[in-house]
Amino acid sequence: MELRTLRYFVAVAEELHFGRAAVRLHMSQPPLSRAIKRLESEAGAALFDRTPAGVTLTSVGAVLLDEARALLDQADRVRVRVAAAAGAATITVGILGDSTDPGATRLAGAYRRQHPQIEVRVRETDLTDPTCGLHAGLVDVALTRGPFDETGLEVQELRSDPVGALLRSDDPLARRDSLNLADLADRRWFVFPEGTDPRWQSYWNGGELREGPVVRAVTECQQAVLWNGTVGMTLLDHEPADGLTVVPLTDMPPSRVVAAWNEGDTNPLLRSFVRIAISSYRG
């Protein structure tokens, strides 16, 4: 059994869906399906029960999942130890805006436990650069949110979070149980500076061109609403500052938490980092 095939198997086992696993692995679904069928032939038993809704692990598949994870962990540790011996024992991680995300906290602990000899350098960026310096070559991997220009990057979704409208607590709309974007159409919004990635700007402005105070950080977003009565979007589970409230937006897609890195990057520390991030963010 090749390590690559075991990685394919683990992806399908964790996603319980061939399509989602293929997206995660940055490949098309047919070769993934063929690889799993070959693995089942080698194992001499079915690893998945297949249904139109997805797949579930068989008892044999559950055993293989435990063993495959252990083998892949060991392979990653080998790569990291070799990298450390060769002097490549540092990885620089870009984090967007708020490093208090519990997923990032779990990731830091898990990565430290598995790779205590690796120095992790953290570069926290403001809201004007959703790639956290990837395009500029300032970081090896970014823990950030989409959408943004993914040209030249590989992106792995880690989680998705619902969003809501950030309002003053005394705003008439703050009493509503939920809102849609049309309810905010005539309001001033906080906006990011000119030159910010247009995909990123568009998402956080609800797909429209908006006018209002320019912000660069999470605290500036909150202060713009508090002082000016403007509106904007934020994560539904973020605790707003005093005097502010968050109301769910029913017609906005959730905000995707992702890990991103440069295509073709051969840094041996990356694979292990992304694998641990996937499990840490899914808690």
Describe what you observe in this structure.
The chain is α+β, with helices and mostly antiparallel strands and 283 residues long. It has helices at 3-15, 18-25, 29-43, 59-85, 102-114, 198-204, 218-228, 268-281; strands at residues 48-51, 54-57, 90-96, 119-125, 141-145, 153-161, 163-168, 232-235, 244-248, 255-262. The strands form 3 sheets. A 5-stranded mixed β-sheet has the order 4-3-5-10-6, covered by helices on one side. A 3-stranded antiparallel β-sheet has the order 8-7-9. The chain has a two-stranded antiparallel sheet with strand order 1-2. The model has no long low-confidence stretch (mean pLDDT 91).
What is the CA-atom radius of gyration, in angstroms?
Answer: 21 Å
Number of helices: 8
Overall structural class, as computed from helix and strand content, comes to: alpha+beta
Biggest sheet details: 5 strands, mixed
Instruction: For the largest sheet, list the strands in their spatial order.
Output: 4-3-5-10-6
Distance linking N and C termini:
28 Å
Strand proportion, as a percent range, falls in 15-25%
| Shape, principal axes of CA atoms | globular
Mean pLDDT: 91
Number of strands: 10
Order of helices and strands: HHHEEHEHEEEEHHEEEH
Low-confidence stretches: none
Helix content: 25-40%
